[in-house]
């Protein structure tokens, strides 16, 4: 927990700078204007020019009555991400782009939280799309809890693939048999709770940082609720290499979570479950070349299993 607090402190001091002078002039706001802000939407972005326009357009259509802002955190983009954001300056009056030099979505989110002007921090991603009323629904959820996770819809942005993509449950899932968690693509946290636990742990560079944050919040006594009206349309990876890479990272991070939380009650996978998992992978292998649904399922699960093996070796735990 001390490490997470240190990361958040560094984010406040040195992580952020405006991407370029033109962006500074375009987006800077007066202190009085920023003091009115009720909620801050934080979006980490790395080479997101192809998708962030969809997210910003959805946010520009939000109808929340109180003043709110959008903080896009450019995490080292080499494409036209910043220029795309500039195009929405008139549609989203309180839109800012800042820059975070340290790599990783955790660092970017911490930087955005540090730069945000409000007490309600709403996190979403640059490649998804917030549903109508998302800002208002998330703010309402944070009136009754310290943190909230919204609903995930997976058909809108994944045409032709919905039949074989995993479906998100209509509740906050209990992750790894331990505690509920929300995903950072649709997460709201009160600033007081966020700062109490030190924000995102930046050593979780690309996977499970949201699970870790949700668990630390709950273990520190903060409440986490489900906000079904806060819908985000989720975009899955659309190439085999991207699916495999994400699943591998998640599997590897799961082993690290076990190292961090086993003494707090996170269980080890049951031996029979591990055996069944590898058996299913072996049985399904002949169907991979001929059935797309099986192919994507196998790729994701085999990559996650390989990640857990690698994570077990890396973190010196037995978590298969």
TrEMBL record:
Highest taxon listed in the record's lineage: Bacteria
Span of domain Glycosyltransferase 2-like: 40-197
UniProt-listed InterPro entries: Glyco_trans_2-like, Nucleotide-diphossugar_trans
Keywords carried by this UniProt record: Glycosyltransferase, Transferase
Pathway membership: Cell wall biogenesis; cell wall polysaccharide biosynthesis
Record Gene3D superfamilies: Spore Coat Polysaccharide Biosynthesis Protein SpsA, Chain A
GO molecular function, one term: glycosyltransferase activity
Homology family: Belongs to the glycosyltransferase 2 family.
Protein name: GT2 family glycosyltransferase
Species classification: Bacteria, Bacillati, Actinomycetota, Actinomycetes, Micrococcales
